[in-house]
Amino acid sequence: MLLCIDCGNTNTVFSVWDGERFLATFRTSTEHQRTADQYFVWFSTLMENRKLEVAITDCIISSTVPRVVFNLRVLCDRYFDTRPIVVGKPDCLLPVNPRVDEGTQVGPDRLVNTAGAYDRHGGDLIVVDFGTATTFDVVAHDGAYVGGVIAPGVNLSLEALHRAAAALPHVDVTKPQAVIGTNTVACMQSGVFWGYVGLVRGICDRIKAEYDCPMRIIGTGGLAPLFSQGDVLFDLIEDDLTMHGLTVIYSHNKENGSI
Ligand SMILES: Nc1ncnc2c1ncn2[C@@H]1O[C@H](COP(=O)(O)OP(=O)(O)O)[C@@H](O)[C@H]1O
Ligand SMILES: CC(C)(COP(=O)(O)O)[C@@H](O)C(=O)NCCC(=O)O
Ligand SMILES: [K+]
């Protein structure tokens, strides 16, 4: 049984893959202080609660936070007796190597999204992922990650507004009733919601113009469905794209003998 770990700057997601489907998915906040023992107690309690008695034999990790990888490696070694594949490390093979400026460390989540999206849909894609940051990944005709865009994340923008302005409260992102807000919260929600719809649309249009050949747009991350209520932004929304990408990279490494 394969354990896929996707560690973002805000949340860490564990998913158990039986070779055909994901049996369970658990989410916790990302904290670099969390120890291997803490991860294991959390994970095994949830597995027991779901009555899943399975042995983890393999593990693959994607982490945008380098500091957490050490304890996740200890978790794999101590509790699952396995050495994890860590996306972005030299011994982890990618189906297609990225084509970016020399010395650039592409976020592993973006490499994983690229592999997952190419496996399902072929090339010429834009993957829009609403995480801590909102990332746009351009997947070329042959499945290579060839660059993209990094914009501030939705919650980050709302938090920055709240922190910087004394009279602005903390608000959650939601689709407002109207564009013209008639109270402070509605004004902020309108700014973030419609601002983001415009940002996604504008960036995708400009990527398409620069790329100069038809592209499909895939939305992923918890907030993708919300923004597609404002405008037709995506050809497809796929919530499990990152986890799927992890299984694709794992299989590629298995087939090519690197594990
Ligand atoms: N369905 C959702 N509705 C509202 N907020 C969400 C939803 N899913 C994720 N978020 C928020 O979006 C932000 C990014 O979440 P996540 O995708 O887990 O980021 P990362 O991968 O960078 O850790 C977080 O602040 C999280 O609380
Ligand atoms: C852009 C990111 C911060 C997004 O991370 P996330 O929102 O998933 O936590 C991450 O992919 C990253 O640290 N990238 C490194 C720089 C790059 O991809 O070019
Ligand atoms: K992410």
From TrEMBL:
Cellular localisation: Cytoplasm
Main location: cytoplasm
Entries under Pfam families matching the protein: Pan_kinase
Catalytic activities: (R)-pantothenate + ATP = (R)-4'-phosphopantothenate + ADP + H(+)
Necessary cofactors: NH4(+); K(+)
Active-site annotation: D109
UniProt pathway: Cofactor biosynthesis; coenzyme A biosynthesis; CoA from (R)-pantothenate: step 1/5
GO biological process, one term: coenzyme A biosynthetic process
E.C. number(s) listed in UniProt: 2.7.1.33
Enzyme class: transferase
Annotated residues for binding of substrate: G107, P108, D109, R110, T184
GO cellular component assignments: cytoplasm
Cofactor binding note: A monovalent cation. Ammonium or potassium.
UniProtKB keywords: ATP-binding, Coenzyme A biosynthesis, Cytoplasm, Kinase, Metal-binding, Nucleotide-binding, Potassium, Transferase
GO MF, one annotated term: ATP binding
Residues that bind K(+): D129
Residues where ATP binds: D6, C7, G8, N9, T10, N11, T12, V13, T132
InterPro entries membership: ATPase_NBD, Type_III_PanK
Subunit note: Homodimer.
The family this protein is said to belong to: Belongs to the type III pantothenate kinase family.
Protein's job: Catalyzes the phosphorylation of pantothenate (Pan), the first step in CoA biosynthesis.
Protein name in UniProt: Type III pantothenate kinase
Species lineage: Bacteria, Pseudomonadati, Pseudomonadota, Alphaproteobacteria, Rhodobacterales
